[in-house]
């Protein structure tokens, strides 16, 4: 195993890290959009501070589904 293998592995690791960060940012943006546009009377952050587990599960589900959509979108 030469330095070529190591450099390609590090390059792939870098691409995957960037991909993960982009997916995370898109997911958070989608969650904020849903919070602001669709649920105007409910503040997710305030409900999370109160310990509302239903909101936490709902936000987790939104992030999971957005991550799946972004994953399939990036893979083409």
Automatic annotation (TrEMBL):
It is found in: Cell membrane. This is DUF350 domain-containing protein. It is a multi-pass membrane protein. GO terms for cellular component: plasma membrane. Belongs to the UPF0719 family. It comes from Desulfatitalea alkaliphila. Keywords: Cell membrane, Membrane, Transmembrane, Transmembrane helix. Its main location: membrane. The chain crosses the membrane at residues 13-34, 55-74. Pfam families: DUF350.
């Amino acid at each position: 195993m030469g330095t070529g293998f190591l450099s390609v592995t590090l390059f792939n690791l870098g691409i995957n890290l960037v991909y993960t960060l982009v997916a995370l940012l898109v997911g958070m943006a989608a969650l904020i959009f849903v919070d602001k546009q669709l649920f105007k009377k409910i503040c997710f952050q305030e409900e999370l501070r109160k310990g509302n587990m239903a909101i936490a599960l709902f936000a987790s589900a939104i992030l999971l589904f957005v991550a799946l959509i972004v994953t399939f979108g990036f893979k083409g």
